[in-house]
From TrEMBL:
InterPro entries: PEX11 (IPR008733). This is Peroxisomal biogenesis factor 11. GO terms for cellular component: peroxisomal membrane. Pfam families: PEX11. The lineage of its organism: Eukaryota, Viridiplantae, Streptophyta, Embryophyta, Tracheophyta. Transmembrane segments: none annotated. Homooligomer. Interacts with ARC5 and FIS1B on peroxisomes. Involved in peroxisomal proliferation. Promotes peroxisomal duplication, aggregation or elongation without fission. One of its GO terms (biological process) is regulation of peroxisome size. Keywords: Membrane, Peroxisome, Peroxisome biogenesis. One of its GO terms (molecular function) is identical protein binding.
């Protein structure tokens, strides 16, 4: 076994262990953004819930950067076009960086890391990494949906004299298409959430808009976790 294979195997075990906190993180995320929607940035109980839940989620995500580090060095599916491979690996690299830097943000908010200004700068950099990963995810899903659409049309031509919905391969492709469409919607919403957290368009993407998009994105994530456990979307 090569060194790379051994590293993959070791990281896979760590990923399996860390994924136990995934469901809790998704529930907390829904609470966090639901509270942000209710508070609309105004001081009060809802804003306190938003901030405290955000801090709690950072504990759930400790060392979670290993997940995407493992995905980064893992081989891709055979036949995947190079542009999609490049986008997928970029997403993994950006998301792993975001999760790693987010640990420093947690250390800063708990007072362990004393340099407050640097912690805030690192937090902003981490959010840009998450924004970049969400953009990459959106492009990957668009590309994969295009590939699926082409293969489904080809299969439809082959099955023109029969009911395509009775064909197992067509049903599987249709299911994958629906899953990727949902993932595309979620990734698009996460872009809006990242823009809101970074305050890149404060007049249009208000805390209420950020909370609404984040809450819906969290519900989609919970649905994917329940019905498509092989998908493991990681959200801020």
């Amino acid at each position: 076994m090569s060194t790379l294979d051994a590293t993959r195997a070791e990281l896979a075990l760590v990923v399996l262990y860390l994924n136990k906190a995934e469901a809790r993180d998704k529930i907390c995320r829904a609470i966090q953004y639901g509270s942000k929607f209710l508070s609309n940035g105004a001081p009060g109980t809802a804003q306190n819930v938003d901030k405290s839940t955000s801090l709690a989620r950072k504990v759930f995500r400790l060392f979670k950067f290993v997940n995407d580090l493992h995905a980064l060095i893992s081989p891709t599916a055979p036949g995947t076009p190079f542009p999609l491979v490049l986008l997928g690996k970029s997403k993994n690299a950006l998301l792993s960086t975001f999760l790693f830097l987010d640990q420093i943000v947690w250390l800063g908010r708990t007072g362990i890391y004393k340099n407050k200004e640097r912690a805030e700068l690192i937090g902003r950099i981490s959010l840009f990494c998450w924004l970049g990963s969400s953009v990459c995810t959106t492009l990957v899903e668009l590309g994969e949906l295009g590939r699926l659409s082409a293969s489904m049309k080809k299969l439809e031509r082959e099955l023109k004299d029969s009911d395509k919905y009775q064909n197992q391969f067509y049903r599987e492709k249709l299911k994958k298409s629906n899953e990727r469409t949902l993932a595309l919607v979620k990734a698009g919403m996460d872009i809006v959430v990242a823009v809101g957290l970074l305050q890149l368009a404060p007049k249009k993407v208000t805390p209420r808009v950020t909370g609404a998009f984040g809450f819906v994105s969290s519900l989609i994530s919970c649905y994917q976790s329940c019905f498509h456990p092989h998908q493991s979307p990681r959200l801020h």
